[in-house]
Amino acid sequence: MTANSNDMKSSRRAFLRGALAAGGAVAGATAARAAGPDPLITEVQSWASGLGAPVDATPYGLPIQFESDVIRRNVEWLTADTISSINFTPIHALDGTITPQGCAFERHHSGAIELSKKDYRLMINGLVDRELVFTYEDLERFPREQHVYFCECAANTGMEWAGAQLNGAQFTHGMIHNMEYTGVSLRTLLTEAGLDAAGDLSDKWVYVEGADASSNGRSIPMEKALDDVLVAFKANGEALRMEHGYPARLVVPGWEGNMWVKWLRRIEVADAPVESREETSKYTDTLADGTSRKWTWVMDAKSVITSPSPQSPIRHGKGPLVITGLAWSGRGAITRVDVTVDGGKTWQPARLAAPGQKMALARFYFDHNWDGEEMLLQARAHDETGYVQPTKDQLREVRGLNSIYHNNCIQTWWVKPNGEAENVEIS
Amino acid sequence: STSDGPLGIGRVALPEEVAAWDLDVRPDGHGLPVGSGNVADGDELFQDYCAVCHGVFAEGVDNWPKLAGGSDTLDRDDPLKTVGSYWPHLSTAWDYVNRSMPFGNAQSLATDEVYAITAYILYSNDLVDDDFVLSNENFSEIVLPNADGFIIDDRDETELPVFSQEPCMENCKEAVEITMRATVLDVTPDQTAAREAFIAEEAAEAEAEAAEE
Known about the structure:
The complex is a heterodimer. Chain A is built from 8 helices and 23 strands. Chain A is of the alpha+beta class. In chain A, β13 (285-286) and β14 form a beta hairpin. Chain A has 3 domains: 2-61, no CATH class; 76-158 and 178-293, Sulfite Oxidase, Chain A, domain 2, CATH 3.90.420; 302-424, Immunoglobulin-like (Sandwich), CATH 2.60.40. In chain A, the strands form 6 sheets. A 5-stranded mixed beta sheet of chain A has the order 4-3-12-7-8. In chain A, strands 5, 6, 9, 10 and 11 form a 5-stranded antiparallel beta sheet that branches. The two termini of chain A are 36 Å apart. Chain A has helices spanning 2-22, 29-32, 39-42, 136-139, 169-173, 186-193, 222-225, 392-399; strands at residues 85-86, 107-108, 121-126, 132-135, 145-152, 176-185, 205-210, 218-221, 230-235, 238-239, 249-251, 264-270, 285-286, 292-294, 302-307, 319-328, 334-340, 348-349, 351-352, 362-370, 375-383, 412-415, 421-426. Chain B is extended, with a radius of gyration of 27 Å. Chain B has 8 helices and 5 strands; from the N terminus they run βαβααααββαβαα. Chain B has helices spanning 15-21, 39-49, 51-54, 90-100, 111-124, 155-158, 182-185, 193-212, and strands at 11-12, 36-38, 133-135, 150-152, 178-181. Chain B is mainly alpha-helical. Helices cover 35% and strands 7% of the residues of chain B. At the A-B interface, α1, β3, β4, α6 and β12 of A face β1, α1, α4, β4 and β5 of B.
C-alpha cells in the first residue's frame, strides 16, 4: 500500500501546513491564507496556457491520480487467505448514493472468476414444466427491468460486535455497494420454465448457485423469488465487473449479500431448502444461549456517518461543517435519519438528499456549525415500517456477542478538538 | 402480456447436463449418489488432500477452518463452530466437500472418496468408531449433535416491536462516557500505527519548513 501511504503523507502535509499557517491570532482557516495575493490566481498556471490530454488518450478512464486513496482495502488478519475473503468500499470518501463499480467491495469464496459471455450457461431445473438452458444472448432477449439496490454483506460491521475495533467507516461499514441494475426478473425466467409442475408455490424454494468452485449455493423461498429478485447483467450502466459476477448475478433486494449469487449458473425449483454450507455453517447467527438463528435474510435499517469519520477528519477548523452519511433498510425505504453531536443527549433530523428508495442507499446531510469542541457523532435511521436503528447495547441484549452477522447498530465517532475522529463506544 | 407465458427462449436441458450440475444434497439425503467409504480410507485421503490446511485430526492449521472439536462451546465467549459442534446436517458436509473442496482443486474427488472423507470427519469429531463405513444406505441414520440447535429468524417477534418505538429526541441522557476505543486495539491497516507515524514525521517536517520561512 505504498501509493496509499504516499497519499496519506501528502494530505497530512497539506493539513499540517494549513494548520500551521492558521495558527495564531487569525480565527478561521480560510482567512489566514489570504494574507497576500494568491499566486494560483495572480500567476498564469500551466493548465491555463498549455494543452490538456487528447480525447484518444483514455478510451476507458480511471479516476485522476489525486483520488488514488479512494480505493478498496482489505484487512489481512480477518481471513486465512485473500481468495475466500473480503475487501471494503471507501465509503468515507464517496458522496451521493451510487457506488463506482471500480471501488465497490468484493467478497469471494474461491476468488473472482473469469467467465466469458460465450462460455456462460444458465440452467433452470427441478420442479418446472421444462428444464431449460439459456445462453447469455438468450438472457438479453427477455423483457428487462431496472432498479437501484444496496448489496450489504451479512458480516458488515461484524468485527464490531465485541467492541470498537476497526478505525474507519470503510472498515466498519464498507462491505456494501449500491448500484443501478438492469436485468430480467427471476419471475420471468421461472415463467419461461413453467411452474405448473411445482403445484402449490407457497411451500416451494429455489436453490441458486454460481459457476465458481465455491458455488455459494443458497435457498430462497418461492415468495421472494417471484417478488423482486433479478438476474442482472448490467450495473451502473455497463456490464457487471468480473469481481461482481460477470456476466450475470442474482440481485436479491434488501437481503444479505451472500444470497446475491455471482456468476449465476443454476436455478433449481425444489420442495425443500438445501440447507447448504452457506446457510448452516455460515450465515447463521448464534445467540447467547448457544442456539442459532437461521434464514436471517433481511438486512435491517442501518446508517453511518461517512464524514467526519476516522479516515475523513475535519481539516478546516471550526465553523460550517457538513456532516454526511448513508442510511439504508432491507425492509423498505428510509424515511428519516436523526443525528446527534453529543452522544445521544439531543437528536435532530438530518436532511435526506432525495426521498428514500426501497432497499437502496439514501444520502443524508446535517449542516452543523462546529464550535471546535469535541463531538460524539451518531446517526439513527428510520424506515417506512417504523423500525428505528437500535444501539449496539440494545442488539447485544437480544443476541449476545457471538452472532457475527447482522450488526446494524448505531455507530459513534469521537471527533476531537483537532478534528481527528475515532471509532468508540459510549455509555 | 409477456410475463403471462413463455416466450420460447432457451432450449430444453438434457439429462446429462442436469446430472452434471445438479449435485446438491439435502438433509433427507435427496441427491446422494450410490457409494460408500470407511474411516481408514478417509484418513488416508484426508492426509493427502486436506490436512495441509485442516490439520491431521481435522483440528485446523493457523487460520484455516477447524472441522472437529468445540463440543459444548456454543454458549461460551468464543464458540468453536465445527461440523461436530455446530453443523446441523451431515448432508451439508458431504455436499460441500463434494462440490467445493479441496480449496483450489474442487470437484476432483470421486463419490466414494467423499463418503470416506465424510466418515473421517465424523470420526475426528468422536461421532463414529474407527471401523465405521458411511454409505448412501446408512447416511440418514447419522444425526449431528447440533441438529436441533437452530431456530428460524424470529426478529419479527423478538426485535421489531422493541425497535419500532418512537425514539427520544431531547434530554435523552445526563452523561456520556467513552467506554471503548478502536485505537487501543490498533488493528486497522494503514490507518492507525502508520498514521500516527506520518503525523509525527510530517509535523517535524512542517516545523522545519516553517522555521526556514
